[in-house]
């Protein structure tokens, strides 16, 4: 094994480990705060947006290279804001509802529900024509949904209110992701993760702040004073996750990202049971195993699709190059013919001169 291969493997483990660690820490941290320490979901989410905005500005000031599309976004800020307003509102809704759901559901149950996002995204994408419907994809997603159903049915502490809050949060998240994919990519303004966050967080802050003020509760100030340090650490954890995700998307292969994502989900479930004491039934363990199989099959299919698309694009490019070369050769021949008359043309010209 070459040094470069070892370097890639080491980098994958380092970035992947950071992604798993920051993600698992954040979810357990959120659950810890929402369960009694700071049970104010609107204030909690608004505080996240304030900190994320400030940290984005600081990071951009000292490390602008981490924001490769920021200059383009700033030059077209009106168009970016036009698209970002609905995305920011959906993001605010997603964060608030998911944090609120943690007051009623176990962290492991929330994670089981999130695995169904892949099926929800596919259904919504088919509805708006972003993806082609195939029964092969439906069969794979049926495996995922079967696992989700087993996990939900086997939940020892099932709470309908928490379940509805979490599903609503996931719908908002999936709609946001689809709108982002359509308008940001289709309009030629595809942004990197950190630039996207830098624009999104202050927009998300506005509706959250309005709702927070309207529903202000007397115990908020006391809870802020008692937990301000934990809230700052939690916000730093959330921002660190954004940075790690941006690095992962840039440095890791699609295969590695899918595999590490599955490992991350498993570790979150395990740590929630160990740290939070969440009960996990045997049926849920079986259901999660079924989900993992479905996610791996789906990831493999998407990777093969991407590979096929890349091969088709390469083939089209090669065909275009051949066509361009053929046209250029024809043009050169035509120019040569115009510049140097053929023997027959010269003979006719000479005969005309003699006449």
Q: Could you list some keywords that capture this structure?
A:
disordered C terminus; 355 residues; mainly alpha; 2 domains; 85% helix; single chain; 13 helices
Figure out the total of helices.
13
Beta-strand share of residues: under 5%
Output the structural class.
mainly alpha
- Percent of residues in helices comes to over 70%
How do the SSEs run, as a string of H and E? HHHHHHHHHHHHH
- Euclidean distance between termini CA atoms: 83 Å
For the sheet with most strands, the description reads: none
Using DSSP, what is the number of strands? 0
The unreliable regions are 344-349, 351-355
Shape: globular
Calculate Rg over CA atoms. 28 Å
**What average pLDDT do the residues reach?**
83
Counting structural domains, the number is 2
Description:
With 355 residues, the protein is an all-alpha fold. It is built from 13 helices and no strands. Helix 4 runs antiparallel to helix 8.
């Amino acid at each position: 094994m070459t040094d470069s291969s070892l370097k890639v493997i080491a980098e994958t483990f380092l970035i992947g480990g950071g992604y798993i660690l920051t993600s698992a820490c954040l979810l357990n941290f959120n659950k810890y705060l929402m369960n009694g320490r700071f049970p104010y979901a609107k204030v909690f989410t608004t505080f996240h947006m304030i900190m994320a905005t400030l940290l984005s500005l600081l990071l951009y000031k000292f490390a602008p290279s981490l924001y490769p599309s920021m200059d383009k976004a700033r030059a077209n800020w009106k168009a970016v804001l036009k698209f970002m307003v609905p995305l920011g509102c959906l993001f605010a809704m997603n964060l608030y509802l998911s944090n609120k759901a943690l007051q009623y559901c176990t962290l492991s149950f929330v994670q089981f529900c999130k695995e169904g996002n892949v099926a929800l995204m596919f259904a919504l994408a088919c509805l708006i024509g972003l993806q082609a419907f195939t029964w092969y994809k439906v069969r794979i997603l049926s495996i995922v949904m079967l696992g989700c159903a087993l996990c939900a049915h086997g939940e020892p502490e099932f709470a309908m209110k928490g379940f509805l809050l979490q599903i609503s949060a996931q719908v908002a998240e999936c709609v946001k992701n689809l709108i982002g994919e359509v308008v940001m990519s289709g309009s030629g303004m595809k942004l990197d993760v950190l630039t996207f966050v830098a624009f999104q967080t202050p927009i998300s802050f506005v509706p959250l702040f309005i709702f927070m003020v309207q529903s202000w509760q007397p115990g908020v100030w006391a809870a802020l004073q008692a937990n301000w340090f934990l809230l700052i650490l939690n916000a730093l954890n959330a921002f660190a996750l954004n940075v790690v995700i941006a690095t992962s998307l840039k440095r890791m292969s699609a295969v590695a990202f899918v595999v590490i994502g599955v490992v991350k989900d498993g570790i979150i479930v395990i740590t929630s049971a160990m740290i939070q004491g969440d009960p996990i039934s045997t049926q849920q363990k079986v259901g999660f195993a079924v989900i993992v199989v479905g996610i791996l099959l789906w990831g493999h299919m998407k990777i093969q699709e991407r590979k096929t698309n890349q091969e088709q694009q390469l083939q089209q490019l090669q065909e275009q190059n051949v066509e361009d070369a053929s046209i250029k050769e024809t043009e050169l021949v035509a120019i040569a013919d115009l510049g140097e008359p053929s023997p027959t043309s010269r003979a006719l010209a000479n005969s005309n001169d003699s006449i």
